[in-house]
Amino acid sequence: MKIIGIICEYNPFHLGHKKQFDAIRSAFGEDCAIVCLMSGNFVQRGHPAIFPKQVRAEAAVHCGADLVLELPTIYALWSAEGFAAGGVRILSKFCDHLCFGAESGTAESLMNSAEVLLSEEFSTALQCALEKGVSFAAARQAALSAIGQDASLLESPNDILGLEYCKAIIAQKSNMKPFVIPRQGNYHAGTPDAYNPSATSLRLQLVKNQNWQSYVPTEAASVFENAPIYTLAAGERSVLARLRTMSDQDFEAIPYGSEGLWRKLMRSSRSCATLEEILTETKSKRYARSRLDRMVMCAFLGLTAKDMQTTPPYVRVLGFSETGRAVLKTARLTGDFPHIGERTGSEYEAFEQRVDDLYGLFRVDSPAPPNEKLRVFIKKATE
Asked: Which of 175, 269, 319, 322 would disulfide-bridge 68, Cβ 3.0–4.6 Å?
């Protein structure tokens, strides 16, 4: 049985994700297992997930996932490089292939370009480009062009993330092989496409309580129908309260604050009224808005740069089928990743509980209570 991994957010699960499942089973057979490593209650763009992780995991299993694991928060809130590296590290214990979408890249072209990005020649060229004061994204493209390489794979979001997956596979000497499928549709489209809806557009539809059901599989729609919705706007005052009470030392300790960026955020937090004003005041052409969003969310959750360098001692199971139960038993566990869903009573477990408790402040209708018990969705083979 082939085991295929997907690093995902399912924010929310939609028709495009179901197409990916269908493509996997078409390529590897109906008896293959699909393992999804999904961001928990906070996602890579620095926002709370639109639905709780238990709801999103249940939808994924209903739609064909065999095992849904939680991508630890410290990986979920990293930049693309850390997000990919953390995901590859975990899925390498389970999977034969890593499946992801790309706008134009193929498995071969992405792996070849990833090799270049990991080379000493590229590292030197990148440093030269960064010294000119441009953004990291612009510097990477300039560096590739400077060493005579095609930079086109650094132009589209899924190609960029695919490159990071391939870099992680190479750097970690993972046995997983990339399985790339074409990513169709506009990743950031604000209006849903009938065949290739974007998660961005569906979040807008959900918040406005407009038609979203036709853009998600029927099995997922039944799970989402009465689920509570969570947004950054609903919890804005909670975030502002945290920013307004942070000390200079607190700001200095948060991730992504290098080159004095933490000072800019600190000054903005102490002079601006709203979160949008703070982010606008802090923004510069050198730093992407997504970096600032993640920086603010890390500050709210109490995550420091030091915390982001730690290794999670376990990974949580969010949902599984009978096939997924069998996959868990075959996991290639090693000393550096000893636990699957095992509670350890560690500081890390206390941190996870804090993160989940704070997520409740972003619920749209009213805050959710803390200490909500983790619900694991189990799908029996007879269902």
From this structure: 319
Run of H or E including 38: strand 33-39
Task: Tell me how far apart the alpha carbons of residues 199 and 215 are, in angstroms, rounded to a whole number.
Answer: 10
pLDDT tens per residue across span 7-60: 999 999 999 999 999 999 999 999 999 999 999 999 999 999 999 999 999 999
Tokens 């933490």 correspond to 262
Note whether 163 and 149 are within 8 A (CB): no
| pLDDT (tens digit per residue) in 329-374 | 877 654 444 445 555 567 888 899 999 999 999 999 999 988 767 7
HEC string of 157-224?
HHHHHHHHHHHHHHHCCCCCEEEEEECCCCCCCCCCCCCCCCHHHHHHHHHHCCCCHHHCCHHHHHHH
Give the Cα separation of 376 and 6 in Å (integer).
19
Phi-psi map region of 44: left, alpha, beta (phi>0 left; psi -120 to 50 alpha): alpha
Other CB atoms within 10 A of residue 127 CB: 11
- HSE-CB at 356 with a 13 A cutoff on CA atoms is 20
Among all chains, which residue has been given the structure tokens 């920086």?
295
Separation of alpha carbons 33 and 24, rounded Å? 9
Nearest to 286 by CA among 315, 316, 266, 256: 256
Other Cβ atoms less than 10 A from the Cβ of 64: the count is: 19
At a CB cut-off of 8 Å and minimum separation 6, what does 330 contact? 3, 94
pTM higher than 0.85, yes or no?
yes
Greatest distance between any 2 Cα atoms in the chain: 61
